[in-house]
Design goal:
The chain has 15 helices and no strands.
Length: 320
């Protein structure tokens, strides 16, 4: 219960922190490039520090079967935090409590709220995606372990300093944090790609850079990440279903408000219904953790034993 209280407190403190950091960044006059990146700086800073806060809460207040499951919980909660405060940032605005109250009292008002606010934020997400390229490139520099190593050299020898510097911070660079951030980048491309087609190009470049950066880091530079047998991948697929549902809600609202007739909005609503059905089917109809007993009993080839013929004799035991 204490863990849920801390997560709730972090939820309501998140947006004031983002606004505060962004306002400070806007005050600083460090040239045109800085002025272009400053509006998204507060969001990037909180996106970077949020995994550490969540991991501390999970390890302190929740019972985990293994420490790797902290990464899985981080993936889930981190994704939903970013859905609210990154993808739906303009719809939520500065009043998180008011947004949640509107959803509770008038659920169907979400169509109008998203249609009125989110189409005007496409330039913000263009800047957000471009800034993400820089974060991927900075990750290839491994500046955090390098800084730790240089500081540790003042105290230990090279071998001891390397042990202190490695492994890299698993809160931000672990499987959970990275899986959630990659899902959010794809969600931005899905949700806003129709409203502003250049976002599709920027999203493609983002993942092309990611392929180069993390294809090198995870294979050749970083420590081996713990795997839970496909849990992170399946959860990412679930998050893509969420992205399609948000896209359906947004486009239904936009077409209902801006189209000359209700026809396009009705078609979009039909696609939203299909997305909801597909999401339910994904959770209920596909079994990936355990093999269904019915499949095992129906497939006779799996439990038929082949008749043994002949006798095997170790060659070394026979006389030559």
């Amino acid at each position: 219960m204490l863990g849920y209280v801390f997560v709730t407190g972090l939820y309501f403190a998140y947006m004031p922190c983002v606004i505060g950091i962004t306002n400070i960044a806007k005050v600083l006059d460090w040239g045109p490039l800085w002025q272009g990146l400053a509006p998204t700086l507060g969001l990037q800073v909180m996106v970077a520090f949020l995994p550490t806060f969540l991991i501390i809460i999970f390890r302190s207040c929740f019972t985990l079967r293994a420490d790797a499951f902290a990464q899985h919980k981080l993936q889930v909660w981190y994704f939903w935090f970013q859905i609210v405060f990154v993808v739906l940032a303009t719809a939520v605005g500065q009043n998180v409590r008011g947004f949640m109250q509107t959803l509770a009292e008038k659920p169907f008002a979400i169509f109008g709220v998203m249609a009125k606010t989110m189409p005007y934020a496409t330039h913000f997400y263009m800047n957000f995606l471009v800034l993400a390229w820089a974060t991927h490139a900075m990750g290839m520099m491994r500046y955090v372990p390098l800084f730790k190593y240089k500081v540790a050299l003042k105290i230990w020898d090279e071998e001891g300093a390397k042990k202190v510097a490695e492994p890299e911070d698993q809160d931000y660079y672990g499987m959970g944090g990275r899986s959630a951030r990659w899902a959010i980048f794809m969600t931005i491309g899905i949700v806003y790609g129709t409203l502003s087609p250049p976002i599709n190009v920027l999203c493609f470049i983002n993942f092309a850079v990611s392929r180069i950066a993390y294809g090198y880091l995870m294979v050749f530079a970083e420590t081996k990440k713990p795997d839970l047998g496909g849990v992170f991948f399946v959860k990412q697929m679930e998050h893509m279903m969420v992205a399609l549902i948000i896209y359906g809600i947004l486009m239904t609202g936009v077409l209902m408000q801006r189209a000359a007739t209700y026809g396009p909005g009705i078609i979009a609503a039909g696609a939203l219904v299909f997305a909801l059905w597909s999401n339910a089917r994904f959770h209920q109809s596909f079994h990936w953790e355990k093999l269904p007993f019915e499949e095992l009993t129906d497939d006779e080839t799996k439990h038929k034993r082949k008749e043994a013929t002949g006798v095997y004799m170790q060659p070394e035991m026979t006389e030559s």
